[in-house]
Amino acid sequence: MSAVVAVDVGGTLTKAALVDADHRVLLARRTPTPTGPRVAEAVIDTAAALVGELRSASRDAPVAAVGAVVPGIVDVGRGVAVWSENLLWRDVPVRDRLAERCGLPVALGHDVAAGGLAEQRLGAARGHEDAVFVPIGTGLSAALLLGGRAHTAGGFAGEMGHVDVGHGGPCACGATGCLEAIASAAAIARRYAERTGRPTREAREVADLLVRGDPDARRVWDEAVDALALGLSWISAVLAPRVIVVGGGLARSGELLLAPLRERLEARLTFHRRPDVVPAALGDEAGCLGAALLARELLERP
């Protein structure tokens, strides 16, 4: 059986994996995501180099296709990365450029949607046709999985991090009150530093301080969980998912996050379907596994 190469372009790291037909990761690589004025060309160069390296290393199974996932707004039909706040690119024909460089068919997708697809088919949402995947890290977004398929609306669906939850603070997107600006892992670290004047780089530092009884950490954490519960209550009311899978760096805090989140979400729901709120199962492999699924789907098309 053939293998596929999956590439997950993140704001900080670009990950790649050689994945077999049974969805097993045979080899994996990671490298810093390029930055700078020619970021589009540099990212495609990096992705092509990773594909070439893994393709050369695949001795037992020929590589038949590539799946690549990127952040931001993605037009899957045209294979175009429309816009990304993190990568600062616009209207980049990633699919065609990468296919030309690699000499292989390429499927392009959105990183969060692909991660959600992987969690639904292989991970924590397996067996549920209606699910939502919410990775919380530098940013905050959602993959909407309805009737067993990802709902993307041309790449614009799932921007949960940019709904106004009422805190009034600014967001990098230009709006105010955005969920991402109070409940992402980056926001938690930033808001604790602003509140205390103490340099804080990561949300896990705030989580550690919370466990030790720091009142400022408690305040920042509670405000983040309250805002996240509000956002998820809207998702629950509108889409009625059976399960909400929470992933990303913040999910590594486990029940410190999930227990109060379940409680506060429950308090906001009345007659609505109550979703199970569970941790992601695939960790930081979700994006690559989702990209591999997209590559497999491409190969299976008539």
TrEMBL record:
PANTHER family named among the record's database cross-references: BIFUNCTIONAL UDP-N-ACETYLGLUCOSAMINE 2-EPIMERASE_N-ACETYLMANNOSAMINE KINASE, ROK (REPRESSOR, ORF, KINASE) FAMILY
Gene3D superfamilies recorded: 3.30.420.40
Protein family (similarity comment): Belongs to the ROK (NagC/XylR) family.
SUPFAM superfamilies reported in the protein's UniProt record: Actin-like ATPase domain (SSF53067)
Signal sequence extent: none
InterPro entries the record matches: ATPase_NBD (IPR043129), ROK (IPR000600)
Protein name: ROK family protein
